[in-house]
Amino acid sequence: MRVEWDDQVSKKRWASIVRSSENAYFFHTPAWAEILQQTFGHTIATRIYEVDGAEVLIPMVEKRTALFRAYASVPHGYGAVFGAEALSPDTLSRIFRSMVGGRSVGFALHLPPGATIPVNGDRMIRRNSNAWTSAHLLFLDRPCEDLHAGVHREIRRQVRTAEKRSVVVEHPDGIEAYRAFYSLYEQRSREWGYRAPEYPWTLFEHLCRCGAPHVRLRMAEQEGTPVGGLITLEYGDTVFCWGLAVPMAYRHFYPTHLMFFDLIEDACERGFSCINFGASGPLSGVRTFKERFGAREVPTEDYHVLSGIGNLWWPLRGYPLSPFL
């Protein structure tokens, strides 16, 4: 079997494959890779493999240190192996092994719910299973009124409370609105105990400037004061909840409840078939909250492919490539 690959993939060809594929998210597009490159300095390393004439696309980026490099598909979101359904486990193993060795110490792959790959027990391909390998999905397979009626009565009561307290949801799209969101995000990060937010302001600046038409911002306001924000990524038939910022001081206004209600109504009106609320991890309260909106938990697949050096350094969390591995 002949397996060849090319990492000089045109954006047009890349986008065309993603657009015609199932389980595709904004994370898989050239636009997301460019946002990561502009924000974090990652190198775009997407490859197209040709296997006996069939094409396999793996969107990914590369991170380097002075000595080594690692690949990820895709950081801060989902990765993919488009065309994997046509591969045998042995062929996929050959593809993954081509990514590691020498200075390349590892490859990380986090698939979206519903996506799977064939594996053959290759010891270099390690499947991870933990509290984060799942997502909560709300399928929009009923009229919006029925979806709202299926929301837990306590959530519906809190939505009415938010409305009585003059909270409204706006859909702004300018850079100043993203600055308002980031201010809320900074407040919430301090409440989590972080000295600085996990994501820098430049990421949100690039989302605003480069994410259209797939990036959407909602801001909950109480008499003109921002009290909560939600960033969603829209692609194909799915809306993904990527960023939520609601400081503790504003929780009594129930902005999250109102923004989620607005999200469900808007997604139904615009013809989406699913809302992905993301992973809940070990946070049982977050899991319960999503399920009260009617979402159900769906497993995801998460893999690491490690070279010998990657296996040695895997436990060293201070190692600069460990977030990729």
From TrEMBL:
<dbReference type="InterPro" id="IPR016181">
    <property type="entry name" value="Acyl_CoA_acyltransferase"/>
</dbReference>
<dbReference type="Pfam" id="PF13480">
    <property type="entry name" value="Acetyltransf_6"/>
</dbReference>
<dbReference type="InterPro" id="IPR050644">
    <property type="entry name" value="PG_Glycine_Bridge_Synth"/>
</dbReference>
<dbReference type="InterPro" id="IPR038740">
    <property type="entry name" value="BioF2-like_GNAT_dom"/>
</dbReference>
<protein>
    <submittedName>
        <fullName>GNAT family N-acetyltransferase</fullName>
    </submittedName>
</protein>
<feature type="domain" description="BioF2-like acetyltransferase">
    <location>
        <begin position="152"/>
        <end position="279"/>
    </location>
</feature>
